[in-house]
Known about the structure:
mainly alpha, Sodium/glucose cotransporter, 0% strand, globular
Amino acid sequence: MVSIVLVSLYLLVLLFGSFRKKSSDQDADADSYLLAGRKLALFPFVATMVTTAYGWIMGIGQLYYEYGISAWLFLSLPYTSFALIMAFFFSKKIREEKIHSIPELLAKYYGTKVSKFGAVLVLLLISPAMYALMTSQLLAEVYPLPTWICLILALLFSSAYIYRGGFQSIARKDSYKFLFMFGGFATTLIYLFQAHGLTPLEGVSPQKLSFSFSGHLWEIITWFILASVVITDPGYHQRIYSSESPAVAKRGLLVSVLCWTLFDFLAASIALYGLGLLPNLENPALVYPLLAHELLPPFLGAIFILGLLATIMSTLDSFLFLSAQTLMLDLFGKTQETGKNMRIGLLLISLLTFALLVPYLESNAVEFFFDFTPYMVCVLVPPIISVFLPRYRLQGNEVLIQMSLAVLVCYAWTLLPEPETFGLNAVVPGILIVVAYQLLTLLLKKRKQGIEN
């Protein structure tokens, strides 16, 4: 009952934000609505970066439950590594582009066709579906409602307050969600330690309490390749575009890495307590909400649920917003009346997300992640990196071929019988082939130029 009351109050506060009087400049220009006027200071940058990038919390709980702390080697280490690469090598260049989106970046360097192709793939990459799924499953643990109704509620309460306020509303709310996120997890871990000490961990397999590469090497390599999606993540790009300066973007990413590392410790520790206290769960993706309901006092359990909701919904609202932007502005070219077209886009994306998720309502976030991410990595990572490495940049028509090849290879790999894939995720052959194509194309062009000279 306490969870129902507190979660309802939390959702109503989000909904109340949608009725606030909108600022007079929200529809004035794209920078104001899409990028908060490019005036994001360090704390809001860190708050919105940290909360948005950690939205996959139910899947994270599942993997820590299944693999133990070794999951850090493929869950967190690859992503924080690429975040550091973004901070030191790309953030300044991205901020200085003074554009609004990744498709706009592709259009600038490769042309309209590549931009449109990229926009379609970006739509898949930033699909809010996985986060809407997790939010609906979490709400279904709180309310005695069917999952499909909880899905409608998740989409409604996540899109309502950004309907008018744009990215400024997202950044403002993420500052509060940042506090809910860390507060909920920190207080839960403190309670579990005080109530149970380290006794529950004594029943956990020693292999799950130590870092081990044994048996996980290809999984770790695969996750490092998948983590390169950070370079193409529109959420990272949007926040870098929105920062006050390149220096704020770089410092913000570095502070975000520290925050993620701390939160990794909280998330992993609580999942291990869940493993010790709730062994043999039929659905490990629900380890956090089940722990909240069965092992925590009602009020603390409700606070923990709010922390989970804040973590997931911060990504859900951001991806709803980015999806609407990609659909309406980048794909359909509706660049006039930004606010009006974005509101239409939010409605369309919400309807599409609901339709897409109907077959996945009983699935988990891990399955959803592995279905879509390989395409994004293989299609978008090479051309976006090449934007900032002119020596390795292809021409527009060559990039179009490369992107098409990536889609075909990834899709063909999923059709193979499992023994013929050697247990490899589609991202491995996909990235190897598209990188080989790029290097071979550059080599042939260089050789041709040498012959002509």
